[in-house]
Specification:
The chain starts with 13 loop residues before the first helix and ends with a helix. The radius of gyration is 21 Å and the shape is globular. It has one domain: Hydantoin permease (Orthogonal Bundle), CATH 1.10.4160. A two-stranded antiparallel sheet has the order 1-2. It is mainly alpha-helical. A hairpin with a 2-residue loop joins β1 and β2. The longest helix is centred in the last third of the chain and has 35 residues. α7 crosses α8.
């Protein structure tokens, strides 16, 4: 059986690349996390600061990662090694790619479990579980799901198997076809929910909350959270944009496509807020409910709505699609690496990645269910990490991702030769200068601020 090297793959069109990259970025971070951190940090003022950081920090680093991928034409680590050699610097700079790929894979080990929550709630909604539910019983439903290792394992396994099946079918017939089908479906469902929410909820209060800045409610901590989320929402430093960039045709503008990805990702995040907050305000719920907003607070609103079963089911189908499109993106870099390193077929690499993912994911499953072997009680720079899941989540999300982003900015801004970055960006002098200032100075300073926040300085 012959092996198809991932470097031979190319997106069939610029639209496919933008759609795939947006699908990778639009995940639980947009639909689950963004609304609740917006609610916790004052709404409109947070959104304004977030948008500023997206285009000052997120887009330049996104351009840097896509550039590494397209010029290197390999999985993240090998691509960075090629470019380091080309620029005449030490090959140790290849860690720029390896760190991101490793961080993305480790995040995926628990991301698939959280995606399993959405799938479980989709099934529960379809069965009518949320009809007539009250505050006490919704807590029981959530607690029962999270505490059941068998339920978490069942639904996370379905997510992983689905991911392997899509990626294993190949680049054109698996990954690209899936995002071209699933992403439009996700957007249609999200818009339908937003329109429905506007009609049955309090759209005026939601719009005011999102679009009317009140800077008196925005703290220094909130600004740093906006900075961190702006960076992470674009799937940066996870290997995704480097491997997707490696499939980008030579003539495609990295500048234009990166801006389109950021715009699309931001629009989806705002629409998600417009789908959720009219319900929150219309049914007297608290916008700053935190991580439980989707899984514990919204089901109470669904119970009070007309057509509870249909509404809740459509919402959680949309959430599953968001999680799934991100999952197939995050596994792609490891599949490409296995193909290159070991000469495996696409199916062999996908199955191997899925198997390793499933095994490591057991730590998260049993952390939630309270298994004794997952209780580690670590302390990381003053941050208590009681379980293996907490350790993986905190170190991958808050240490490896910022480090990976910092290295990508420094690598493209300072290490790669200017002639090569100019060739890849093919931008006008002023655009290139702005990009270079961002990756040389603004992005590193911003990421260092994130680290200082992590260490408790702020």
């Amino acid at each position: 059986m012959t092996t198809q090297q991932p470097t031979h793959n190319r997106w069939s069109s610029n639209f496919s690349f933008v759609l795939a990259a947006t699908a990778a970025a639009v995940g639980l971070g947009n639909i689950w996390k963004f609304p609740y951190i917006m609610g916790e940090n004052g709404g409109g003022a947070f959104v304004l600061i977030y948008l500023l950081f997206i285009f000052m920090i997120g887009v330049p680093v996104l351009m840097a990662e896509v550039m590494i991928g397209r010029r290197g034409r390999s999985s993240p680590g090998f691509a960075a090694r090629k470019l380091a050699t080309e620029s005449g610097v030490h090959p140790a700079w290849q860690v720029t790619g390896w760190m991101g790929m490793f961080a993305g894979f480790m995040i995926l080990t628990f991301y698939t479990v959280i995606a399993g929550w959405a799938l479980s709630y989709m099934v529960k909604a379809a069965r009518g579980t949320f009809v007539g539910i009250n505050e006490e019983t919704v807590g029981v439903v959530f607690g029962s799901m999270v505490g059941s290792a068998s339920e978490l394992l069942f639904f996370s396994t379905i997510i992983i198997v689905g991911t392997v099946l899509v990626v294993g079918k190949g680049f054109k017939h698996g990954l690209e076809r899936a995002v071209r089908l699933l992403m439009p479906l996700l957007l249609v469902l999200l818009v339908i929910i937003a329109i429905y929410a506007a009609n049955i909820g309090d759209f005026g209060a939601a719009a005011s909350f999102i679009f009317s800045p009140n800077f008196s409610e925005l703290t220094t901590q909130g600004v740093l959270i906006a900075l961190g989320h702006a960076f992470f929402t674009l799937s940066l430093a996870s290997g995704v944009m480097i491997i997707y960039g490696s499939y980008l045709p030579k003539g495609t503008s990295i500048v234009r496509t990166s801006i389109w990805i950021a715009v699309a990702d931001t629009v989806v995040a705002i629409v998600a807020g417009l789908a959720i907050f009219p319900i929150v305000f219309g049914y007297g719920l608290e916008p700053g409910e935190g991580p439980g907003l989707i899984f514990q607070t919204l089901p109470l609103a669904f119970a009070a709505m007309p057509f509870t079963t249909i509404t809740a089911t459509v919402f959680f189908v949309m959430l599953v699609l968001a999680a799934f499109t991100s999952a197939i993106a995050m596994i792609e870099a490891s599949v490409a690496f296995i193909q290159e390193q070991f000469g495996m077929t696409r199916w062999g690499a996908a199955i191997t990645s899925g198997a390793v993912l499933w095994l490591i994911g057991l730590a998260t499953v049993f952390s939630f269910s309270g298994a004794a072997w997952t209780q580690i009680d670590w302390n990381f720079f003053g941050k208590p990490l009681p379980t293996i899941f907490d350790a993986i989540d905190h170190i991958a999300s808050n240490v490896l991702l910022p480090l990976g982003g910092l290295m990508a900015a420094v690598f493209t801004g300072w290490v790669m030769k200017t002639q090569f970055t100019r060739e890849e960006l093919a931008a006008s002098g002023s655009v290139y200068t702005i990009w270079q200032i961002c990756v040389r100075y603004l992005a590193p300073i911003a990421i260092i601020l994130i680290f200082l926040q992590l260490l408790g300085v702020f």
